[in-house]
Amino acid sequence: MKKRLFTPGPTPIPEDIMLAMAKPIIHHRNPEFKEILKDVNENLKYLFQTSQPVFTLTSSGTGAMESSVCNILNEGEKAIYVNGGKFGARWGGLINTFGGIPIEIKKEWGTPPDADEIIKQIKNHPDTKAVYLTHSETASGTVTAVKEIAKKVREISEALIVVDGITSIGAMEMRMDEWGVDVVLTGSQKGLMIPPGLAFIALSERAWKKVEITKNKNFYFSLQRTKKAFDSGDTPWTPAITLVIGLNEALKMIHAEGIENVWARHSKLAEGIRVGCKALGLELLSKNPSNAITAVYVPEGIDFQKFNDALKYDFGVTVAGGQDHLKGKIFRISHLGYYDEIDMVGMISALEMTLTKIGHKYIPGSGVRAIQNYFNQHV
Ligand SMILES: *Cc1c(COP(=O)(O)O)cnc(C)c1O
């Protein structure tokens, strides 16, 4: 059976990337690898839309999240974070772990924070050192208005803006420098289309000043150590060589397509999926849906397990389920990374055939017709 992955990490890997990673391994202190690292570092800046260095860490995305807390926040310092899903909640866990004082803004899953709520908390806590946001909350498929929030926060506060861009980088507009975002981070197995194992983080000059005076504990994730190695074209520890080689290919692909075109493609594919789902009478969870992932309610009276099994075992399609209180209540379709229109039409078609199989009522062909019409009208 042909397997098709529609999950928000890992995401499908293009053939050229797989082939590059299949070659015999090289040593990371060789000039050959240093050349690759140089190209990677340049293209990462383009991806993040920053002139600052973007560091490649050997860990999953959470490693970059951890480094953005333990290098920036001292024990006893306040940080605001938005908990509107599993990944936003992770900020709270990290701030707590490193002895910071978390100030939580809790949101219903699917509802993004508005800038005024964050401003209100900053006014309540003027000594706040950082605001931790999740650009695309993967648990609910919801986008936070990072640009607007960063602008408003900067008007009244010195607090650093830290953004988990793990499912937004390479999918949705992010202009780190122009938007005045201080820290942006992501992981490899999402928009970058390579296997899990790398994380990336970039810091503004303001953020660096804070790193230099932060005394919290860190070692492996020390950004000062990382920067020192980076400045001499190196990495502090053994890098995941194979993944960096794959990354080089992925970044070349993104560069060749053009970052704005990558964002536009994600926007179109996401809207196609939303249009297709709605035409099937399916309800979407998010009030401000992400272009990386679409969270869809499991129709009334349908058993999620049966639905998921049919999708997976009859059609080879893997989607993600719901997490925590939404387990069994939603499913999440990823359109992040290496996808095109035909993948999306196929996804809606698989959804239709699965719904037919488990007895959900809808007009056959309505989803496929809707997504095709949408794509035909938006060439
Ligand atoms: C996947 C994801 C993470 C976690 O990344 P890991 O690679 O599993 O450590 C964090 N935040 C968001 C928004 C994600 O989608």
Compose a concise summary of this entry.
This protein is of the alpha/beta class. It is 45% helix and 16% strand.
Structure description:
- With 379 residues, this protein is of the alpha/beta class.
- It folds into two domains: 4-9 and 259-377, Alpha-Beta Complex (Aspartate Aminotransferase, domain 1), CATH 3.90.1150; 16-257, Aspartate Aminotransferase, domain 2 (3-Layer(aba) Sandwich), CATH 3.40.640.10.
- It has 14 helices and 13 strands.
- The strands form three sheets. The chain has a seven-stranded mixed β-sheet, sandwiched between helices. The chain has a four-stranded mixed β-sheet with strand order 1-12-13-11, covered by helices on one side.
- Helix 10 crosses helix 11 and helix 12 (304-315) crosses helix 13 (341-357).
- It is globular.
- It binds pyridoxal-5'-phosphate.
- The site of pyridoxal-5'-phosphate has 13 residues, from helix 3.
